[in-house]
Design a protein that fits this description.
This protein is mainly beta and 249 residues long. The chain has 3 helices and 15 strands.
Length: 249
């Protein structure tokens, strides 16, 4: 009588094969998050200002990227209009969450686009989707958001280390701002991608702003954002549409 066949690692059914494929699939697979475009609604505190190009490159330093495949920043900066946005999303394809967007300015690669250098969030699905779909340098962080006439936002690392605190005071109001689609570039990962963000801003208030940034924080270069001409806004009604990305490489 012949000896029995040795056990096989092959699945016995299509269901087993599907389960094996699912187990082998990386956690950042786009199948785990809603496909683009994403439409998000919420409110935001935004600061835009001019910085020297040397400071812009410090803000865009590769240590901000969570991936070892961060695209090398040998691309020319077209301008040094840096921006920081603290956003509180009430509705999104992955549920409510907070984020902090940091852009050191515009760069050029076939087309111009605002580079996203850092993007802390407090929603795991947002992190997975941002990295897998748009190649965004999203990291996890904790947010403390205080609303009212003098709103403030504090961002901390998951272990509690403070990164930045922003305090705002109201100055005057504008009814609405309709902004054309903004080209955005992401350089986290082996691809360089471009996509558009189409914002609609309502109930806009001009603000005064102060940053408190610890000396050991990665955000120390952002201190320079408030040393020159800058504009701070509170947007109580924000709608963003984030398009499908295009590869530039």
């Amino acid at each position: 009588m012949p000896p029995p066949d040795p056990p096989s690692d092959r699945p016995d059914s299509v269901a087993d094969q599907s389960a094996a494929n699912t187990a082998a699939r990386p956690l950042w697979s786009p199948r785990h998050v809603p496909p683009p475009p994403w439409v998000l609604r919420g409110s935001a505190l935004i600061v835009v200002g001019r910085v020297a190009r040397a400071i812009a490159r410090q803000i865009a330093d590769s240590r901000f990227a969570p991936s070892p495949h961060h695209y090398p920043l040998s691309l020319p900066f077209l301008g040094s209009l840096a921006a920081v946005a603290f956003v509180q999303y009430d509705a999104s394809p992955v549920g409510p969450y907070h984020e902090m967007m940091v852009s050191p300015g515009l760069i050029w690669h076939t087309v111009p686009g605002a580079l996203i250098a850092r993007l802390p969030v407090d929603n795991q699905q947002s992190l997975l989707g941002g990295r897998a779909i748009w190649g965004l340098p999203k990291t996890m962080a904790d947010f403390t958001w205080t609303a009212g006439d003098a709103p403030s936002v504090e961002v901390r690392e998951p272990m509690g280390t403070p990164l930045i605190q922003a305090r705002f005071q109201r100055r005057g109001s504008w009814p609405a701002l309709l902004v054309p689609p903004l080209p955005i570039m992401s350089a986290c990962g082996p691809r360089l991608q471009v996509f558009t963000v189409t914002p609609l801003l309502r109930s806009v208030t001009r603000m005064r702003v102060e940053f408190e940034i610890p000396d050991k924080s990665d955000f120390v270069p952002l201190r320079n954002l408030l040393r020159g001409p800058h504009l701070a806004l509170c947007v109580e009604m924000l709608r963003l549409r984030v398009s499908t990305p295009l590869d530039l490489l």
